[in-house]
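Appendix B, record 7
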Amino acid sequence: MLDRKGNGVWLDLFKASSVPIVRHVKIKADANPYDPAQEEYFEERFQRHFKEEAHGARIKYLWHSQDGKCTACGQT
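Structure tokens (predicted):
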């Protein structure tokens, strides 16, 4: 490939094998996010997912320093 000045440029190809395989945990068949009795189950799922996912450093720092709870109301 040539750049704007006509010089040859090397391109690196992306290898699909460099992407790690990530397995996802399925939601229970009888789980309902609108059922107040199952609120704890979905909160645990969210917290586990948030810890594993890559988010901004500042957001992750705040979340960990506040123990995953709102400073105003104390809820997760």
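Remarks on this record: The mean pLDDT is 84. The helical segments are 39-52, 57-65.
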